[in-house]
Amino acid sequence: MKHLVTAALIGALASPVAAQEAVTVALDWTPNTNHVGLYVAQSMGWFEEAGLDVDILPYTDTSSGTLVASGLAEFGIVGAVGFHSQRAAGAEMTAVMAVVQHETGRLVFNGEREDIQRPADLDGMIYAGFGSAWEEALISSIIRHDGGEGTFDTVTLGTSAYEALANGRVDFTLEVSTWEGVNSEILGRPQRAFTYADYGVPDQHTTLLGANTAWLDANPDTARAFVQAVQRGYGFAAENPTEAAEILIAETDGMLSNPDLVHGSMAALVEGGFLRDAGEPVGLIDTEMTAEIAEFLFEAGILRGPDGQVLPEMPEVSTWVTNDYLVQ
Questions:
Q1: Where in the sequence of the chain do the CATH 3.40.190.10 domains occur?
Q2: H helices within 287-326, ranges in order?
Q3: CATH number, span 105-199
Q4: What radius of gyration, in Å, describes the C-alpha atoms of the chain?
Q5: What keywords would UniProt list here (predicted)?
Q6: Which of 20, 27, 48, 277 has a Cα at 20 to 30 A from 75?
Q7: pTM, entire model
Q8: Could you tell me if 189 and 166 are in contact, meaning their C-beta atoms sit under 8 angstroms apart?
Q9: CATH 3.30.830.10 fits 20-102+205-320, yes or no
Q10: What is the distance between the alpha carbons of residues 111 and 49, in angstroms, rounded to a whole number?
Q11: DSSP per-residue letters across 131-164
């Protein structure tokens, strides 16, 4: 059950652990506003205050979830679909905080397209994709929910999808509304979008803070100190998006070269209610919502076991997440 928490309580940390306990946290991508709470906590000295020496690992070709599950990092920012997929395959990882409270992704197309008015219109069109099974299940489900057949052609382009969409070489793609969506506005590229939840896809925490399960069990006090310092960082960002954006830019040593995008993204996260639900603590995981998206992934055949085979029955996902390390 979700509980009301005061601003004062969010600022409270667990008792500091032994001085300068080393903790590493892996990023799921190059630094962006989904990581803002980490950099705020680092800049404000809240990790040090909690007795922690935190190393924010740079993004690499090895996924953050893999680094966490293998014990090479104690914590990592992870995408929800990847997290569920890795857990189904037996990864030693537990989600301990929701970075965002709701789905930030959306299906987008050029705003000037008169021939696209509803998802069913996408049948037979060209989708610029990123190479995951989730995309096929997601898009076909959205189209079928609107009465279409769910058939479309895919060209895998990665981040080049957005230029291809702007140039008219593809018909639609997926984007993170609080990042690529903001950038499209800055570039003057009009878009329209379909929101997943409007077409039968369960809402989800698209980004989570994951932790190595065995390490959590062995180091509960250090884990609690770290999670609550991170929670404090995201709480600050939710209340002070402009200052948080400036901290993120300063702490990432020039990696974020477009301050308008960073500030616009922080505004979108806060104004869209992505960092905090009213009356709830920052970072709280909705266990019911987590179960619903896991069931969607299971029914789509995306969840595979350690043997690589599609799971024959729905897993018990209640143990995959916990709110026990948060201030509540």
A1: 20-102+205-320, 105-199
A2: 287-299
A3: 3.40.190.10
A4: 20
A5: Iron, Metal-binding, Pyridoxal phosphate, Signal, Thiamine biosynthesis, Transferase
A6: 277
A7: 0.92
A8: yes
A9: no
A10: 48
A11: S-HHHHHHHHHHHHHTTS----EEEE-GGGHHHH
